[in-house]
Amino acid sequence: MTRNNILPKLFVIISVLWIFAFLYLYIRSINMQKQIDFIEENYSELESLPYYKRSIEKLQRELTDIEWESFSGRPLSEFVVLLPKMAEKSKIETLKIENTETRIENEREVTELQISAVSSFSKIASFIDLLERSRLPIQINSLGLEENNGKIKTSMSLRIFKPAGTNSVLTGTQVE
Asked: Which residue from 5, 90, 105, 117 puts its CA 20 to 30 A from 130's CA?
């Protein structure tokens, strides 16, 4: 090869390398610009983050207040009086309610009631449905069903939640 042939070939190789480097940097700058645009779009949301946090905290406080609003000011006896009415509406044949325990759990007063009922399955199911739809802060902790001569004997443990320190009147009482 002569020296005259090497120079043009070297120029072409360097030009091709320069074009590839330029294309690489151009594509990289386009990607960086997309990232910058994304950051600028979302920066306003970042500025609003403290507002969102305060709003969430306020909504959580309001939710806690609403949870307890329906029952917290009433004595526990008012709820226990509702149970026989719910049973009557469900046409439960026999109902027995016993207060088994009251204790403080996670800054909430938890009262456990043991409920025994005898009736047909559909009536027991209706009673449980009324309990669930009552919107009171209760939880069915356990449920046992036993069939006896075509009737269902039900024993259920019910937990009632109230903020600690509110007046609960029942302790160890029994209602039949």
From this structure: 105
Whole-model pTM above 0.85? no
pLDDT digits (tens, 9 = 90+) for 91-130: 998 999 998 888 888 777 888 999 999 999 999 999 988 8
Q: Which CATH superfamily is domain 73-175 in?
A: Ribosomal protein S6/Translation elongation factor EF1B (3.30.70.60)
Sort residue 175 into left (φ over 0), alpha (ψ -120 to 50) or beta: beta
Say how far apart CA 126 and CA 124 lie, in whole Å: 5
Can you tell me the distance from the alpha carbon of 104 to that of 168, in angstroms, rounded to the nearest whole number?
12
User: According to the model, what pLDDT value does residue 17 have?
Assistant: 94
Domain boundaries, the chain: 3-68, 73-175
Report the distance separating Cα 91 and Cα 152, nearest Å.
Answer: 13
- For 99, phi then psi, to 5°, come to -80, 120
- Helix or strand holding residue 12 (H, E): helix 3-47
